Amino acid sequence: NMRRLSEEKKKFDEKTLHEKGIAEEVSRHIDGIKIVIAKKAGEGDVLYGSVTPADIADALAERGIEVDRRRIELAEPIKRLGEHTVHVRLHRDVVAELAVEVQPLAPATA
Q1: How far, CA to CA in Å, does 29 sit from each of 1, 5, 67, 106?
Q2: pLDDT one-digit tens code per residue, 46-57
Q3: 79 CA to centre of own chain
Q4: Chain-wide mean pLDDT for the chain?
Q5: How far apart are CA 110 and CA 102, in angstroms?
Q6: How many Cα neighbours within 13 Å face the side chain of 23?
Q7: What tens digit of pLDDT does each residue of 92-108 get?
Q8: How far apart are CA 27 and CA 9, in angstroms?
Q9: Which residue in 110, 109, 101, 108 sits closest to 45, CA to CA?
Q10: Helices within the chain (DSSP H only)
């Protein structure tokens, strides 16, 4: 039993190390990038709605970076125009930081 437990722990450690390596690779792609999201805004630069982790994950996917929306950490949804810093927890030990710029949606021309 001790040998089996030791082997399972070794496999778990290898798997965790592999996952951390993948997370660090994705982190290098995310760190320091700036994504732009356009939303409808009213007076005082307040959005009609908010920018959610799903919006940020979609914007990253457009750049070819797949991130689960549950890994994107927002203290609260973004409700104002401007630049905001967002953290993405890719692994227990790996956190990437990116800038999200929220711009007003250009009115449609008819």
Answers
A1: 42, 37, 11, 29
A2: 888 889 999 999
A3: 17
A4: 88
A5: 24
A6: 18
A7: 888 999 999 999 886 65
A8: 26
A9: 101
A10: 2-30, 53-62
Total-model pTM: 0.78
Cα–Cα distance measured from residue 32 to residue 17, given in angstroms and rounded to the nearest whole number: 24
Q: Give the type of residue at 106.
A: A
Per-residue confidence (pLDDT) for residue 72, from 0 to 100: 92
Mean pLDDT of each 10-residue bin along the chain, 110 residues long: 93 92 88 89 85 92 90 89 91 89 72
Give dist(CA 58, CA 52) in Å, integer.
10
3-class secondary-structure state, position 69: helix
For residue 88, the cross-strand partners are 72, 96
CA dihedral 25, 26, 29, 30 (to 10 degrees): -140
